[in-house]
Amino acid sequence: VLIQESNRSGSNSNTRILYLDDDVIYPPHLVHSLYRASERHPKSAVAFSGSKLRSHFRQIKHSHERRDCHPNLYFRVGGVDCHEDREVDIVQGFMGVMVRLGFFDVSEFVELVRDDTMPLGVRKSDDWLISAHLERRNVKRVLVPPHDASVDNAPQLNPVASKKDALSAYGMHENAMTAASYLQQRLGIWNNYTFAHVSAFSEDMLDLLYCEAGLRRRCPNGESYLSVTAKLDQALNIST
Q1: Is the Cβ–Cβ distance between 37 and 100 less than 8 Å?
Q2: CA 20 to 30 Å from 185, out of 33, 74, 83, 147?
Q3: How far is Cα 41 from Cα 135, in angstroms, rounded to an integer?
Q4: Do the Cβ atoms of 139 and 43 come closer than 8 Å?
Q5: Is 239 in contact with 233 (CB distance < 8 Å)?
């Protein structure tokens, strides 16, 4: 969705772009709410879903605030478990994100996403690519609630277009880990965080990682979530 605007010099850098997914049923207030949020934060990307980064994260979680702890990266939804504007690191397109054209160095961004040597896990992580480019450009990302607190902003998957909840899909956590470490190194960003290099994991460690994600067939000897998390922490020299 393009909302075209130009300033007095004729530049279109203020043109707003709303990007989202094609398998979600969106509420009627979406464009209006994000437009108003963009007016409040003219120098920031605004979104209905986002997360602060956490060192040593290995899993992607949402829906229940008790999951906002190690080893999880917890994504909040504006109006559901976030009721005020909050600065985040990663914004998610599945709930809608509004940016301005001027936030991007278009040639630099195109060069990044067209790089054939990029790991597949990074290429699949479009939210991370956009958020990382904005971070490099010193453009803040802000998680916002709807303009009207009484409206329902819970995401609704389109049952015809989507067969699974992408937030919970197995493999998303590994892609996110790959993207975090790769983009940190390539773009020189997020240097106050420490990320695991999942590409260096042995097969045994990958089994533990997927067991921790809830894929029981990868759990060695029927181990529990807590014991697997402790083993991974020990292998990665993480103290919590």
Answers
A1: no
A2: 74
A3: 16
A4: yes
A5: yes
pLDDT at residue 4 tops 60:
yes
**β strands within the chain, DSSP E:** 2-3, 16-19, 24-25, 44-47, 49-51, 59-62, 72-77, 86-88, 90-91, 97-100, 140-143, 156-157
pLDDT, one tens digit per residue, over 34-81 is 999 999 999 999 999 999 999 999 999 988 889 999 999 999 999 999
Residues 6+ apart with CB under 8 A from 176: 57, 60, 73, 125, 128
Question: What is the rounded distance in angstroms from the CA atom of residue 213 to the CA atom of residue 167?
Answer: 12
CA distances from 65 to 33, 82, 95, 177 (A): 24, 10, 18, 21
- What tokens appear for 6 in the block? 């130009």
pTM over 0.85: yes
Tokens 């067969």 found at: 163
Phi first, then psi, for residue 22 (nearest 5°) are -105, 10
- The CA distance from 185 to 27, in Å, is 38
Give the pLDDT band of residue 162 (cuts 50, 70, 90).
low
Spatial contact of 77 and 95, defined as CB atoms under 8 Å apart: yes
Could you tell me which residues are beta bridge partners of residue 143? 47, 86
